Amino acid sequence: MPAGLPYFAWVDASETTFSTDVHLRWDEAVFSFTLSQEEGDPASLTVVVRRPRNVSGDPIGLLGPGRKIWCWFALDCGPGLVKFRGRLVGIPTSIFEELVTLEFVARPVDVVAQKEALANTLRVLPYYDEAVIDPARRDDPDVVLEGYTKIWHFDRETHVVTVSDEITGEDGQVDFDGASEDGKVLYDGLGLTLTSGPLSRVNISAEFTWTQQARGAVDLTDYLISHWPDAVNGAIPSLNAADWPKHGAGIGDGWVVEDSSAQDLRNTTPKTESKSGQYMTKFFDGDTTRVNWSQTVSYVGPTSFYAGQIVTTNTIQITKSKDGDGIEYTSSYNRNFSATDNVIVVQEIKPTLVAGYTAERQCTERVSLTLVADVQPILTDPEDGEAMRIDDIRSVNLSEELLIGDPRRRSYIATERGNQSLEHLIALARAHLMKRARVVEIAFVPKLSRMSEITLRKNAFLAEPRVGEAVGKIIGYSLALDGSDGRINCEVRIGCTIGRGGIVTATDGTPTYCTVDYAGSDYQRFLDRTILVDAFTDSSVGYQPPSAAPNDDGIEFMSTITAADVIEVGLVVEHGPDPSEQEEEVWTTPMYTSNDNEPSGRSEALSEYIKNVYLPQYETRARFKLKSMTRNFSSDYELQVTDLMIPTGYDLEAV
Fold first, then answer.
1. Which of 45, 91, 85 is nearest to 64 (CA)?
2. Contact, 438 vs 194, CB < 8 A?
3. Rounded to the nearest 5 degrees, what angle is found at the Cα of 632, between the Cα atoms of 629 and 637?
4. For the segment 468-489, what is each residue's pLDDT rounded down to a tens digit?
5. Which residues pair with 318 in a beta bridge?
6. Are 477 and 489 in contact (CB under 8 A)?
7. Distance of CA 275 to the CA centre of its chain
8. Do 185 and 462 contact (CB within 8 A), yes or no?
9. By C-alpha distance, which of 189, 552, 563, 208 is closest to 354?
10. Could you give the CA distance from residue 388 to residue 437 in angstroms, rounded to a whole number?
11. How far does CA 540 lie from the centroid of its chain?
């Protein structure tokens, strides 16, 4: 078979395997063709053939019923074949001319299913992080590649969909080093261009949000008693049991009384004592008489103090008589007197109080990082390099998606899972910088004999005096036959990065807690520690894992919580003035009307005054504030990352 000879065979869709015995034939006479493929796209074939005719010489419709629309195309390159399987994608052009143009594409018929299946295998950390992917976008296969330096690849023969790295090809390297005849490239067709300039850095801002959730109870009894003024032996003065908070009462944001009790320690039930007796009274004239008396008294214990008296009864009955000399004298005297002494009872209680909480607190950690690319500048002032800002990254609710693990946590990014999210941010920045560092595009014309080695999953090395040495990913190729001269033109294009090379080295850092031998690394904090992202096998970037530093109220729900942990404003107890030191009020004067010896209506008014005006000024008020269980918290972190080391595909500084 002579080199450069094209073959064309119409085939059924089921003929997916090329056979030299079957498919090296000429179903159509090919006058010219162009076979090409660009990175990220399926290969395409344009062929110009003689318009088919039947045995009678009449034209045959290429799209008629029963016509085959698939083809196998092969080009003999000498050492091997360049093969292509494709489907006719449209109405042939120049359909009424003697020569017609057919267009085929090597696009898989099941491209969507293949992409989805492959995407499922690529949804791995740190390249893909569902924590920051909107659930509505998670089924989109193209979203999967955002953290990779990869692009879709469509095999021109098998139609198998894979992904290929845009910096380093997976299937090896093709060398054009000029050392052999096949290793040389043609003089004509060599070109070097610069695409848009490289990114100098990527600034990323991201928010990670979760609802901190916890339930529990805290015993406040010891705290309240120990901080209550004048409390003795667990007893609190100046309160009644009825004043103490009851079960279920709200006592703060997210707080209720889980359990409580209060016992009055002083008996305030009035006691009644009755006394009676008699005594002898001697008059001025020497006569005597016996006087009978009786008294009933009700009182409370000695824990009260006097607050005035109200006379309720004061009646006097006097009987006058005359002696033998006609002198009038008091023959009998009878007085009925009753009064109410007002007292203020100072009670004391022995209480308990357990507060229950239900935490629903919105927590946000805002992370910022700047990843700088170590690239060669293409501007005279490297400081003018282009920067990209990505500030629309927001996580889903990490507790609802169960990504934070334990929703009681105070920090997400300081956890192992959180570090993976940070590595995803680095992967996003790295992908942008790596792709944009592929600034140099070199086009060259190899010998036809080398074209069977060319695929978009390989790198190419080029050594040519006019450009020097270059290594880059193959980003496009083409083979074309011009029917007018019978020459086959070949072209290969590579994309070369302009980094300075090098790798990042991990550093252990200095432990701040104790030696690593004693505690290991999992529960340790380090200074100046740099770890590499294991997924990046090129050791291109490292970062310093942040320590948890939440800007919150300090409650650690994953540990035992005490009263000291939840008190935001300490206990303040306010008493009124000491009633025993106040001046005696006007109502201590007995109140009755001399005319009818009956208490006036003033006594009822006085009772109301004592209850509603006088006593309230002596109330005891106690206040304290518990930390809110419904607050929102936000913490800011600046992630420390190394510069990104980028391979040197082409050294601009050496040109």
1. 91
2. no
3. 130
4. 999 999 999 999 998 777 889 9
5. 333
6. no
7. 81
8. yes
9. 563
10. 13
11. 27
Note whether 530 and 545 are within 8 A (CB): no
Residue appearing with tokens 């010998």: 447
Tokens at 365, concatenated? 């950690």
pTM > 0.85: no
Q: Quick one: which of 5, 3, 22 has its CA closest to 72?
A: 22
The answer for 3, left when phi > 0, alpha when psi is -120 to 50, beta otherwise, is: beta
- For residues 469 and 426, what is the distance between their CA atoms, to the nearest angstrom? 31
Residues of the chain falling short of pLDDT 70: 1-3, 54-55, 57, 59, 61-65, 91, 93-96, 283-287, 298-309, 379-385, 509-526, 578-607, 655
Distance CA 313, CA 338 (A): 5
Tokens of 433: 């910088």
Pair type for strands 328-345 and 150-154 = unpaired
**Sequence letter at residue 335:** R
The answer to whether the beta carbons of residues 374 and 382 sit under 8 Å apart is no
Q: Is 464 helix (H, G, I), strand (E, B) or coil?
A: strand
Torsion, Cα of 424, 430, 436, 437 (10° steps): -170
**Which residues in 283-303 belong to E strands, given as ranges?**
288-299
Strand positions, DSSP E, 143-254:
150-154, 161-165, 173-176, 191-194, 199-219, 236-237, 250-252
Collect all residues with Cβ–Cβ distance below 8 Å to 625 and sequence separation of at least 6.
Answer: 252, 567, 568, 569
Burial of residue 423 (CB within 10 Å: 0-12, 13-18, 19+) is buried
Taking residue 275's Cβ as centre, other Cβ atoms within 10 Å add up to: 9
Taking the alpha carbons at both ends of the chain, their separation in whole angstroms is: 43
Cβ contacts of 422 within 8 Å, gap of 6 or more? 367, 369, 413, 543, 545, 546, 639
Task: Return the pLDDT at 593.
Answer: 39
Q: From 179, 145, 176, select the one nearest 163 (Cα to Cα).
A: 145
Contacts of 549 (CB under 8 A, 6+ apart): 411, 635, 637
Taking the C-alpha atoms of residue 57 and residue 10, their distance in angstroms, rounded to an integer, is 20
Report which of 198, 640, 634 is spatially closest to residue 426, judged by C-alpha positions. Answer: 640
Which tokens hold the place of 389? 């800002």
The maximal CA–CA distance of the chain, rounded, in angstroms, is 181
Residue with tokens 């590649």: 145
**Domain locations in the chain as residue ranges:** 6-105, 271-302+304-345+576-619
CB atoms within 10 A of CB 575: 14
3-class secondary structure, 136: helix
Nearest in space to 629 (alpha carbons), one of 271, 300, 363, 286: 363
Residue closest to 514 by CA, chosen among 506, 525, 505? 525
